[in-house]
Write a structure and sequence with these properties.
There is one protein chain. The chain is built from 23 helices and 25 strands. The longest helix is centred in the N-terminal third of the chain and has 24 residues, at about 85-110. It starts with a helix and ends in a 7-residue tail after the last helix. The strands form five sheets. An eight-stranded mixed barrel has the order 17-18-20-21-22-23-24-25, surrounded by five helices. About 40% of the residues lie in helices and about 25% in strands. It is α/β, with parallel strands linked by helices.
C-alpha cells in the first residue's frame, strides 16, 4: 500500500483518519461509510475510488474489505486487499471515448454497424443502426431471421440469400435495400457484410455496416427525371423518346406491326414570345402538351423534342402500310384541328396553329435517328407548303437531303483545299473602255466540275460558312488586284467584290481587310465592295461605322440589285455610296415593260441628283444599251459585252479592247 500511495515503506503506516488525505472527498465518504457498515453488520464491501498519491498525481484504487469475527460472531477487526487499477481505468476510459466517438461518427454519417454470431445467428447492432431503422434499442439483439419484418419482400429475399451465402462460403455482399422503419416509412439503405474468422482461421460469424442512402436515392430519382423528362411540361424529353423509339422499332418489327411518328411544331411561336413574353410562351407550350396527351392512346408517347417541337410515338397503327398510313393521317388531322385555337393566357389571348411532319416505321430495318431525320424533312415541307398542315415523309426527299449534307462536307474540304477560282466579268464605260470587272466565284468541284455560286452558296449561307468562304474570296481577289496594280497597263482597274451580311457584320471583318490591304500593298481606289439594300436592314448604324472605317483604306461601295429591296431610300443620303447597280430584271424588260423602263429612268435620275454613278447589269441587247445611254447611264455590264471568264481570257479581253489608260478610269466621287 505504501508503494501505491507513494509513501516510504520504512515509515510507520498512516492512521485510519490519515488515509483521508489519499482520496477525493467523495471517495473518502464512500470508503468511510462502507467501513462503518462492515464493522456494524459484518458484510463485505468492494469499491473503486479516486485516489490522490503523495506526489499529487491521481489514479484509481480498487479495494475490498471484510469483517474479522470472534468465536461469538462479533466483529473485532477488518481486513482486505487493494489494487492500483489506474491503467485499467484509463484503458476503459479511452475505450469509452472511442466508442462514443464512433457512435457520433456513425450518427453523423447515418452509418450503423452490426455483428452476427455464426452459431446462434444473433445480430448485435450499434446505436445508429437502431436510429436508421427507427427502433428502440430494447428491440434487440435477436436472431437474424427475426429481422424479416424490417424489409420489403423483394429486399428481404436478396438479403437472406446474401447472408446465407456469406455464412456458407465467406462471400462478401454489397446490396441496396428498401427497409420499413418502425414508424412505417420506407427508406433505402446500403448494406455490406463480410465473414469474421477467429485466430485459428475458422469462420465464426459475420460483420458489416448499413448506410442510410435515402437522400442519395431521392437525388438520383430527381436527376433521372431531369435527364429523361422535360421540366416545363413533364413530357418525355428527346433522350427518353429516342430510347423508347428504339424499343418500339424492335417490337413492331418482330410482331409485324406498323407504328407512326408525328412531329408537331407551332407556327410562328416566336411571335408570342415577342408580343406577350416568354411566360406566355411557356403557358402555351403547357396547354399544347396537355391537348396532345389527351389526343393519344394510353400506351402512346408524347415527348417535347425541344423548343416548340413535340413528337408523338404512336404504336400499332396497322399490319399493312396503307392501314397504318390511314390511321396516322386521321390522327394527324385530328390533332391539327384540336390545336388550332385561340388560347386564353394570363398575358392575353393568342391564336395558334401547328404544322406536322409524319412517317411510319415497322417494315424495314431503320434507326431512331433516321426516323427523326425523316420527320424533320417532312416538317420542313409542311412549313414551306403553307403551314397548318401535315406532310408525310417521301423517300425521294431523303436523296436531296443526303446530297445537301454531302455538298456541305465537300464545301468544307473545298475551302480547306483552295479549290476556288475567281472569274471576271468586264465592266465598260459609255465609250466601250473596260475600266474594271466584277469578281465572280467558281468552284472546281473534284466530282462535278466547275460549279456556279447558285449551286453551292445557299448551302454555305444556311450553314454559317460565308465568313470562311468570304475570306477565301477576298484573299483571291486582292492577290489578283495586287498583280494588276503592279502593272502600269492595268493599275487603273477596279475590282468589284460581292459581300454578304454574314461577312460584313462578322467580328473582325474590317481588321482582316486592313491586314490584307497591307499584305498586298494595295493602293486606294481599286476595291469596290458590293452589297444589297437588304443588308442594311436593322443594322444601319453599324453598317455606316464599318463603311466609314473601310473608306479610310480607299474602298468604294456599290449597292447591288438596286430597286429590288424593300428598305427606305433615306439611307442613300446618309451613306457615302459611289455607285448604284440597276438590277438586271429591270434592264431585261426595257422595251418590253414600260413600268420597268420607268423604274430604270427613275434610278438614273435619282443617282444623278445624289451625285452617284449608275451601272446597269445584265445588258444583253444593243437596244437595251442604247436606251440606257440615252437616259444618262454611263457604265455597263452584261453578256452584250462579255461573259464571266477565267483570268487568262479576261486579260485577253483587256488586250483587245479600245483601252486608253488616261481616259478609262471612271470619275467616281472620292476616287
Amino acid at each position: 500500500m505504501a508503494r501505491i500511495y507513494g509513501l516510504d515503506p520504512e515509515l510507520p503506516p498512516p492512521s485510519y483518519l490519515e488515509h483521508q488525505a489519499f482520496f477525493t472527498p467523495e471517495s473518502w465518504d464512500s470508503l468511510d461509510a462502507a467501513i462503518k457498515q462492515a464493522l456494524a453488520t459484518g458484510r463485505p464491501y468492494e469499491l473503486e475510488l479516486d485516489m490522490i498519491r503523495c506526489d499529487g498525481s491521481t489514479g484509481w484504487l480498487w479495494c475490498r474489505g471484510e469483517a474479522v469475527l470472534d468465536a461469538d460472531g462479533a466483529c473485532i477487526a477488518l481486513r482486505g486487499v487493494a489494487q492500483d487499477v489506474t491503467e485499467r481505468k484509463l484503458a476503459e476510459s479511452e475505450l469509452l471515448r472511442r466508442k462514443n466517438a464512433l457512435d457520433e461518427a456513425q450518427r453523423l454519417a447515418h452509418l450503423g454497424s452490426w455483428e452476427m454470431d455464426g452459431t446462434s445467428a444473433v445480430v448485435t447492432w450499434s446505436d445508429e443502426l437502431y436510429r436508421i431503422y427507427g427502433l428502440d434499442p430494447a428491440f434487440g439483439p435477436r436472431p437474424f431471421q427475426d429481422y424479416e419484418e424490417l424489409f420489403t419482400p423483394e429486399s428481404w429475399v436478396r438479403l437472406n440469400a446474401a447472408v446465407r451465402l456469406a455464412l456458407e462460403t465467406g462471400t462478401r455482399y454489397d446490396l441496396e435495400l428498401e427497409v420499413i422503419r418502425g414508424d412505417g416509412r420506407v427508406r433505402w439503405v446500403w448494406a455490406q457484410g463480410e465473414e469474421v474468422r477467429d485466430p485459428a482461421g475458422a469462420r465464426v460469424g459475420l460483420r458489416g455496416v448499413v448506410l442510410d442512402i435515402t437522400e442519395r436515392k431521392r437525388a438520383e430519382a430527381v436527376i433521372s427525371k431531369l435527364s429523361l423528362y422535360d421540366t416545363l411540361t413533364g413530357l418525355a424529353n428527346r433522350r427518353r423518346l429516342i430510347h423508347l423509339l428504339e424499343k418500339a422499332i424492335a417490337t413492331h418489327s418482330s410482331c409485324h406491326q406498323f407504328g407512326g411518328l408525328l412531329m408537331v411544331n407551332l407556327d410562328s411561336f416566336k411571335t408570342i414570345n415577342d408580343t406577350l413574353g416568354h411566360d406566355a410562351g411557356d403557358a402555351l407550350l403547357v396547354e399544347i402538351s396537355d391537348r396532345l396527351k389527351q389526343s393519344v392512346k394510353y400506351d402512346d408517347i408524347v415527348a417535347r423534342f425541344g423548343g416548340d417541337e413535340f413528337v408523338l410515338l404512336l404504336r400499332n397503327l396497322g399490319k399493312t402500310p396503307n392501314q397504318a398510313l390511314d390511321s396516322l393521317q386521321l390522327i394527324a388531322q385530328t390533332i391539327l384541328i384540336r390545336l388550332e385555337d385561340t388560347y386564353v393566357l394570363e398575358a392575353g389571348s393568342y391564336y395558334s396553329t401547328c404544322s406536322a411532319g409524319a412517317t411510319l416505321f415497322g417494315d424495314t430495318s431503320t434507326t431512331a435517328l433516321e426516323l427523326i431525320k425523316q420527320l424533320d424533312i417532312a416538317l420542313v415541307d409542311a412549313k414551306q407548303s403553307g403551314r397548318n398542315r401535315v406532310s408525310f415523309f417521301d423517300p425521294t426527299w431523303q436523296v436531296a437531303v443526303d446530297e445537301h449534307a454531302r455538298l456541305l462536307s465537300e464545301l468544307r474540304d473545298g475551302i480547306a483545299g483552295h479549290q476556288f477560282e475567281m472569274y471576271f466579268q468586264a465592266q465598260l464605260d459609255q465609250v466601250g473602255h473596260i475600266f474594271g470587272a466584277e469578281a465572280l466565284l467558281r468552284w472546281h468541284h473534284p466530282r462535278r466540275g466547275v460549279l456556279n455560286p447558285a449551286e453551292f452558296l445557299p448551302v454555305a449561307e444556311a450553314n454559317g460558312m460565308m465568313v470562311k468562304l468570304g475570306d477565301e474570296i477576298m484573299q483571291l481577289c486582292l492577290a489578283q488586284l495586287q498583280c494588276w496594280q503592279e502593272d502600269p497597263a492595268t493599275r487603273y482597274l477596279k475590282l468589284s467584290i460581292n459581300i454578304t451580311a454574314d461577312q460584313f457584320y462578322a467580328d473582325g471583318f474590317a481588321d482582316r481587310l486592313e491586314l490584307l490591304f497591307a499584305r498586298h500593298r494595295l493602293g486606294a481606289g481599286g476595291v469596290v465592295l458590293e452589297f444589297t439594300e437588304s443588308m442594311l436592314l436593322g443594322n444601319f448604324e453599324r453598317a455606316r461605322t464599318i463603311i466609314h472605317r473601310l473608306r479610310g483604306l480607299g474602298v468604294s461601295f456599290a449597292i447591288d440589285d438596286f430597286g429590288t429591296g424593300c428598305s427606305s431610300l433615306s439611307y442613300l443620303s446618309e451613306l457615302t455610296v459611289e455607285q448604284l447597280k440597276i438590277d438586271q430584271s429591270f434592264v431585261r424588260n426595257i422595251g418590253v415593260n414600260d413600268k420597268d423602263a420607268a423604274i430604270v429612268r427613275a434610278i438614273i435620275d435619282m443617282a444623278q441628283a445624289l451625285e452617284m454613278e449608275v451601272l446597269a447589269e445584265g445588258v444583253e441587247t444593243a437596244e437595251q444599251h442604247e436606251y440606257l445611254l440615252q437616259h444618262g447611264c454611263r457604265y455597263f455590264q452584261g453578256y452584250l459585252f462579255a461573259r464571266p471568264v477565267p483570268l487568262a481570257e479576261f486579260n485577253a479581253l483587256l488586250a483587245e479592247s479600245r483601252l486608253r489608260p488616261d481616259s478609262a478610269r471612271p470619275a467616281w466621287r472620292g476616287t
